[in-house]
Amino acid sequence: MPEGDTVWNTARVLERALAGRPLTGSDFRVPRLAATDLTGWAVLESASRGKHLLLRLRHPDSDRRLTLHSHLRMDGTWRTYAPGQRWTARPAHLIRVVLRTTDAVAVGYHLHDIAVVPTGQESSLVGHLGPDLLGADWDAAEAARRLAAAPAVEIADALLDQRNLAGIGNLYKAEALFLRGLWPWTPVGEVPDLPALVGLAQRLLASNRGRWLQTTTGSLRRDEANYVYGRAGRPCHRCGALVRRADQGERITFWCPTCQPGPGTGPSRSGIR
Q1: Burial level of 133, CB count in 10 A (0-12/13-18/19+)?
Q2: pTM for this structure?
Q3: I need a labelling partner for 252 at 20 to 30 A (CA). Which of 63, 98, 158, 193 fits?
């Protein structure tokens, strides 16, 4: 699933292609929005909120404002093209939204939760989210407070709950826990310094804004970019022990058994590799 920085980068791509220009055409290929026509609406800005994309528009003849919401989930993406350029990112049957200006075409593939709402009602779509790690209103203390409110929840699951803090996905969850030496199954109430963990997560995401390769080690070589994420069965960069992986909730967790020791010999769960 795309992390918050990927969604932030996508918002910037759409902003550069569309902002400040009126739409010359729109095509919604989802049944509930099939009759929606945004032709003439001016694109004001493209923003992200956690993992949600918000394209804000203004009516050409009034001050009415709408927001086009989309979520990438595991497999969605937006791509931009020059007029007349072939759309090559994905098969045509995966296209969900097409937005045109005189200078660019934005194509949304396999998007989810597509909605068009008055901008003043955006909270109906994203109001449940916790503080946005990449937002101008980022509030580390509030994020730590929300995490601490459920002390029995495993910390890996708590970090992925977007109601606590918005933007962390499986990659940054695994990497932040490694860097703090935390076993993924540690209950939130036993994490020694939640503010430090939250602050680290925010810095990791912020450091990757503006580039598509997500590095937590500092290396821009793809095979060296992360400490544990996606590295099951390979030596830990820090201690040499083999990185392990296991199912945790609905996701997969990666960790180093030496740098992130759990009680006893490790979690009594199936699927550990």
Answers
A1: buried
A2: 0.92
A3: 193
